[in-house]
Amino acid sequence: MSTSPGPDVLRREARAHYDRYPFGCDQEEILDEKLKHRLLGDAIRELVVPDSVVMDIGCGACRVAQLVHRICEARTIGLDLSLASIHAARRQIVDPLVNGDNMHLPFRSNCADLVISNGVIHHTPDPKASFMELARITKPGGMLLVSVYNRDSWYYYVYRYLGAVVRGLRRLIGDRGLKVTLLPVFHIAVIALLSIALRRRFTMPIAASWNLFHDQFTTPQCTFHTFDEISQWADEAGLVCDEQRKEAAHQLATLRLRKPSFA
Predict the structure, then answer these.
(1) Which of 188, 192, 228, 248 is 20 to 30 Å apart from 239, CA to CA?
(2) What is the pTM of this model?
């Protein structure tokens, strides 16, 4: 009788995966789209206090820090489980970066004016526990912006069925085989689709496309969630939902949540 891997195993697998394929899609066109058309950009623009603290949990390529610096003088702290991602981000920004686990955040409660977790907690062994940690470090009167894979999107079926084929093929031919078979198709498709979505010519380095391919198809842990599910977690954490939106061609369910100030 087979058993599902425990949290420690999943955590190690996720760390190893993103150490090997650090997420790094930070092209100017993507940053511009996030700033102008996502709830992420709206939340950053609402930071009016110069010394506001922004926590980017699961920072990856540190897009959030790059966007914050374009808009205001807030202080940004990034955390990621992958040490390779931290090292890659360090080449672009000087903000504090922490190698840590978002299920056990090494920060005190009520410490951040804005907490951002963009497409991260669905890769953890316990997404709800990760969400509760995000809520814990959000200041009273502060905001939490969280994006998760949308259960009601096309990507659920892509990851479940096409992804299963990709993962099976990978076991047979390895990464070397995937690079000469599926990667060229994926690379061309991503460039074409993003060019259409962004309404401008878009290019991506093949290395970034390779890591994105693995983020989308071979990540060892991936869950999907609904607005109702995340809203229920928010209620339990004492957060109020100000806005929710389907983003990234409905792949993501994004919620902007507020922690009420103390009476």
Answers:
(1) 248
(2) 0.93
